[in-house]
Input
Amino acid sequence: MKRQKAEKKTFNSRTFLLMITIGLFLLMYIVGMVVFSDKGFAKPQMFLNLLISNAGLIVIGCGLTIVMVTGGIDISVGSVVALVCMVMADLMENKGVGPFAAVAAALLIGLAFGVVQGFLISYLNIQPFIVTLAGMFFGRGLTAVISKEMISIKNDVFQSWAKFRIYMPFGSYSNKGKFHPAYIYPTVVIALVVLILIILMMKYSRFGRKLYAIGGNQQSALMMGLNVKRTKFLAYVLDGFLAGLGSFLFCLNSLAGFVEQAKGFEMDAISASVIGGTLLTGGVGTPIGTFFGVLIKGTISSLITTQGTLSSWWVRIALSVLLCFFIVLQSIFASLKRKKHS
Amino acid sequence: MIGVIGKLPEVPAEYHAEAAAVPARNSREGGSVSRLLYFNPDWFPERRSHQKAGETLMDQDIVLTMKDISKSFPGVLALQHVQFTLRKGEIHALMGENGAGKSTLIKVLTGVYELESGEIRIGGIDRPIVNHTPQEAQANGISTVYQEVNLCPNLTVAENLFIGREPRKFGAVDWKTMNRKSEELLNSLDIRVPPTALLEECSIAVQQMIAIARAVDMKCRVLILDEPTSSLDDDETARLFTLMRKLKGEGVGIIFVTHFLEQVYAVADRITVLRNGEYVGEYKTKDLPRVSLVAKMLGKDLDDLAEIKSAHPEHRFGDAKTPVVSARKLGRKGTIKPFDLDVGKGEVVGLSGLLGSGRSEMVRVIYGADRPDCGRLTVKGREVRIGSPLDAMKLGMGYLPEDRQRDGIIPDLSVRENIVIALQAKRGMCHLMSRREMDEAADRYIGLLQIKTADRETPVRSLSGGNQQKVILARWLLTHPDFLILDEPTRGIDIGTKTAIQKLILSLADGGMAVVFISAEVEEMLRTCSRLVVLRDGRKVGELSGGELNQETVMKTIAGGGEENE
Amino acid sequence: MSESKPSVWEKITANRLFLPVVCLVVVLLLNVIKTPSFFQVSVRNGVLYGYIIDVVNRASELVILAVGMTLVTASSGGQDISVGAVMAVAAAVCCQILSGGQVTTNSFRNPLPLAILAALAAAALCGAFNGLLVAKLKIQPMVATLILFTAGRGIAQLVTQGQITYVRVDTYKVLGGYLHGCPIPTPIFFAVGTAVVVHLVLNKTALGLYIESVGINRNASRLVGLNSTMIQFLTYVLCGLLAGVAGIVASSRIYSADANNIGLNLEMDAILAVALGGNFLGGGKFTLMGSVIGAFTIQALTTTLYAMNVSGDQLPVYKAIAVVIIVTLQSPVFQRYVKMRKIRKNPAAEGGAPA
Output
């Protein structure tokens, strides 16, 4: 009997939160479909556009979830996006570097951030907030050092990557009865592949389980013989790499590099993670939850854009309200759990 | 709880004999006796072959030696030239007062603290080893289970057992195998819990056993149990001891750090005593009478049982006729059912019961640490509504909480600040105590309670557990309460301080204070209380006084099964 | 165990303020090297001029924010990242009331005291919102304040109806400029005044002790009679209120309310100031003086960089590097490493066991 009770609890707390997230997404999307059906919201392309616009966020969100599960945080990702886009643009437009090398540079920049930040956080024991704050400053400033003006990417190969459509077997019919197949871009494929890999990693690799252990109780993890320092370091390295990769996907969308790019992006990623069920205290969180968090953020954005009259600031406000809701929910669950134990 | 220890299964004589077969290498006493055994080959024929092979007997069976270990911290010499020897298949108790250095020794052994001087050797490895991290200690076969269970609450039981070494299939974690292996392991150690349960769902006792199971599965040669029974009830302690004996039979050397004398005599083969950071000696349990053990721990002759009784042969307590605090049908849903309680001036009322019976909950509800759902509270004749601890304090109450780490000390604040904080809170934010007043108060209680600290400005976290407890006691004494609640004031404290605190409680009662005293040790309560209130399963089931104050009646009332008297 | 009494040098280096002061001195020296006339002060038009004056002047908002941030950090172990946005909100409310809803105005459409009070009330309200989430609902501070961080500027935009509201009135400019006949810029008075008032409140009452106690162990503090929830809540309200003051000062400098730019990135600077001041970001014991020193250090660093012709956008790079260096130096791991190196070099110097 105790067995049943214990398993039920697992279902209750975490899966429940995930259900709410997924439910919320479906709810919002369906509302959108109903209210804005005349503006094309109900078309399957609308959903695919969500994935297209947020491919970078999905990847970066995964990275952030990894780090947050260990009890840390990374607020430098927005700046990494800006820096990578600027570097890629600069390399391809001003230095005549080929797109493949530019992508390699992107990944290297991400890795570099990960390595440096990871070292400071896990080996020197400096608080993640401060280190990644410095990283954020550094990235943003470096972007401005490279160029104060916007650089558009005109490289043919790169542009062809950005415009390459992968058609789906389904689609929608226009008013004239013509069939328009839905499409996605390679970015979406990459993002989804990464998502699946990260899901598998967190659930089925020793490294992934160590992340959860460290987030649950770092002292215990240490006592149990886990190499906490190295694991945390690798978590940040992976997060950096994913930031680089996500930035590349982002760049395929924006096709430009400028100083103000992706301002506030880190908050989008963190919000998506929290809404997806990641606890900032660590130890709890899944990439799939973050994925739905991203979808929610995307849906809000789409709803407001489709509505047309509200200023874009409302997206941020709506996201904040949602964040507030989920945070409060998490706190209620946590205090219920505390009461049960004392 | 102590009183029931006698009912535990008797330790078979073989266990003692096996330990005696190997001469105590470094003991100062009993050496000649064991040498006799050593040289009589007829008694231990199998040893002869080892002798012939030229190996010394000692190397075969000694699993761990620590020699000349010293360690110091700012202002405190924690260990001076301490030694320790552990043999295969032996349960070896490490004992000493607070500040004696037991936990420091363990932490040096396991790499939590850096080894400053001395040598550690593990059986089978020639060179001395140094453990720089717990991970290294683990790799060397030394596992530790601490009092605060070091597992991850957010992971499942199976994961906690296997984290870092999960079984894999094609490179991926094989959950099915892991769960299955966990189930096997748990069953073999008689631990009843599903491997897929989240650790935070399990009770502390079970968590401890899971920690031990993990250590066992990792094939440790040395298992260190640091105060494992403090949070366990008798059943759980008995199960723990069974587990320990099983492991002993498999050749694991167990270092058992504990304060409970009865438990040591029930299960340990040898005892090493430390005092004030120095090594006193190593003894075989059966050769060391209780009185001698206590004497060695304290450094003076002391009959711990007799002293208190003789000091207050007929202690005149106050009576409940003039209650200072009176509770009627006070209760809180889910924690303590509505109860009545009167505590009079000069009385010491003990709350007794098993773990989870609601003793702490009862006092918390009186004090306002938890808000009651129902009932009335009368203090000094007037009915009151206590909304928060501050209300209770203003009415003259004080509360020493059970969990001093979580609820008691404020670690980074100085001893002085920790002592004055309650009085300051009573006075109010706008009436800051003058520095001089604070200093005087702190010095007074440092002296009165013999608090071992380098300075009154030392952060309380640097003090040993027992001294931290004294600081919290000082805090409440400073407020001169009329009604003082002491929840496990002597837990984790050595005999000497325990006795001192018990005496203090009696003298406070003499001075007119009404005291509520909770302790897991029934004997301790029988010595200091005028009345015992018994709880079971979250409610009050009885009150004992006068002639009923003996172990048997108390145990019977706790156990229940008879009529309940109110 | 060392027998001798600690030398004067040891006492100085052990002081909490030692490293923050050293950092400040280093940055000031850098400034002097780059700009030899750094410390030169002259009086022109009845008003003080000079690089150093500029630094102290522009650091005012940061000092005010840092004071509030210190309290929040100490009592709850977390940071309030919404202070920049709250500055914008306060500025927006203030200017909007003064301009009576117009985009620009040359006279007060509503009385100044009303506008200021309303702005401070709005700021305190934001602080109360944060405080409710953190103290009552026990939500992590960074997460709780994330909400206003994201939404705050949007709210400010709504208040100013999407425009930048200008208040071209001399009396208003005084708050960010100069009082009549006074050579010292007004913001400095605000900064100093804030620091002094808060210091007095903390040390002449038990509030300082309470905040430390609550920040270190909330449970234990509650059981000794402290209202932990109320104390934490209070620190957040105070932090919001102080952000409001800073917002009004900032807005007065540019006699307008620019919801997008007022207080931009200042929350980060404020947190850095607290960290540089030697305060432990996880809460507990704190030093206001340290944070004030940290604030000046950051401002001086900014000035150094401007003098080196670094543009505003590029500034953050150097701040980041400086911060990383400073926080590394302060990290216990690093300090232990240095000690180990020293011991290895002079084993003879250590008689007994090292600490």
Notes: The radius of gyration of chain B is 25 Å. The longest helix of chain B spans residues 234-249. Chain B touches chain A at residues 133-135, 138-139, 144, 146, 149-155, 159-160, 163-166, 168, 171-173, 175, 193-194, 196-198, 200-201, 214, 334 (CB under 8 Å). The CA atoms of residues 390 and 425 of chain B lie 8 Å apart.
